[in-house]
Amino acid sequence: MKVEIWSDVVCPFCYIGKRKFEKALAGFAHRDEVEVVWHSFQLDPNSEPLPGQSIHDSLAKKKGVSVDEARSMGEYVTKAAVEVGLHYDFDRTIPANTFLAHQLIHLGAHHGKQDATKERLMAAYYLEGQNVGDLDTLVKLGTEVGLHATESREALTAGTYANAVRLDEYQAQQIGVRGVPFFVFEDKYAVSGAQQPELFAEVLEKVYDEFKPKLTLVADGAVCGPEGCD
Fold it and tell me: Which InterPro entries does UniProt cross-reference here (predicted)?
């Protein structure tokens, strides 16, 4: 079974949704048969963060609200994150354009480390106050999940996976993704948002039952089994 997930590194509900989906997947009897593929989605592809700008300032400007109101929004999301074991630190969070970060995730996928790269970048952004739009920071984070520093730097500098990011975003447009996280199961069923683990579990069961191989018995005759022959 294939599950494709569109998300952004700097989307707070994407990280929460990742945890909720992971909980559902951990309890799914056929989890070893599930392939999870992460797709790029930039909430603000044209963002140009200013040096020293806080996430509260950035959100206030983007939403057209006061800094205090932006801070309150952050507090609401922080509470939601705590429920899944994540402790966001918005006071340390550094606004970033995620185009390079998504390219690093594609490099991680090339080496079978896509989920590990995605997780490391999200933790760096939301929990540790690291700049995931900075080349040197991304190279360092890549090495922490087993990517080679020289290869990472060369790939990000050359834009080796830039088109892969753009293709993900194009595909999102084609299937009508308007917000993330966005989960697609076997190219047929979609779940939008950081839903509860119970809902993800229900969808996993439904999709598996529908798409698992089914045999049609066309002849029934004498057979032998563990308890003897008929």
Answer: DSBA-like_thioredoxin_dom (IPR001853), Thioredoxin-like_sf (IPR036249)
